[in-house]
Here is the input.
Amino acid sequence: MSNGTGDPLIVAEGLCKYYGPFTAIEKVSFEVAAGSITAFLGPNGAGKTTTLRCLTGFLAPSAGKALIAGHDMAVDRLAGSKMMGYLGEAGPLYPDMTPSGYMKFVGKIRNLSGGDLTAAMQRVLEGCQLTEVWNKPIRKLSRGFRQRVGLAQAMLHDPQVLILDEPTSGLDPNQIFVVRDLIKGFAQKHKTVLLSTHILQEVEAMADHVLLISEGRLQFNGTPQELDAGQGLEARFRELTKGVAA
Here is the structure.
């Protein structure tokens, strides 16, 4: 795995999001370098999904700036989106489509056609191990296969940046292993992965960098080893989140 020493492909500068008197996130700033798998760790309700939605341009921040591969997502979202693949917590799947039909649909949205689309579909078909379900309705697929279809659509246009919201949530151990392997393989191509999670095992299994958020504020930015600090990840997680249940 790359050590993530390249120029930052994801930048958050003082991101804030307010809903009336409620503060969802407050002054969140960080950078994610090329080749890095960065875990965005925190309890449920800590502000992970809000931050990711601001980064991807799906949500306008109340203050601050989000940059994807140098593109300000508030003013240059289309250019930034071309560089990015995104899988939300509830993957954007159409249950009556097959994975094959869905990839054609997504490919056209991404301005892929002809041989380029065929090659891209073949790449994710093989990479996401979808052969046995390629022509089955998505509604009939297991959660693990549906998650792989979601990853396939995010990777279809071969983006530089992959942003994933709880990508292994609800999967069984075998399914988790497959999804983790896909994510690590993507990062090994000197590309960037930012994934949100509240599961400490994800940090140990995949991440070379960790961001920890609690109650809307960034509490830690460093390596898994620095987070552990000789105390164990679970103890440090509870310390930094003040024991907020995950």
